[in-house]
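Why does residue order matter? Because the sequence determines the fold. Keep that principle in mind as you read this record.
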Amino acid sequence: MRSIPTVVAALLLAGLGLIATSQKRVFSPGAPGLPSDARVVQLLDDQEATLNQRRQAETLLTAFVRGQLASFYWGQFASSLVDLGLSSDEALDVRVETKGRSTRLWLTPKRGRESYVAIVHFNGSKLVRLQCRGVSPVSSEQKSAACPEGWRAFEIPEV
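Structure:
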């Protein structure tokens, strides 16, 4: 008598196993016709990647701003990350622009659409710093001490 529930459970599990293994459609992320669960998983994966990129970008932007503040104190802005003793992850395209009284670090992740810029500008009496995030591309007519049009300024919390 005790073995009847065990046999019934084993038969049910075997039946479920056969049904599961007989599925012939295999979905890859991003493929058309994905079940809604796969789309949700892909969306969550993209959001997680964006948050990780933000953390990495904020760390590099903070180090850049601090390095440029110190560099300017000693005479001029540094013209590269190497001059500041910094390096970047290969997942980011990095560009440093230094022109007279202003320097900018542009970060464009290779995944996603969000880009970042840190700006350090000497306005004649003090150094002004600004961090921005937005969607590329940016006009070549960009003002040196302002976020690109359509981008948002944000503060990086001091740790």
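The chain has a mean pLDDT of 81.
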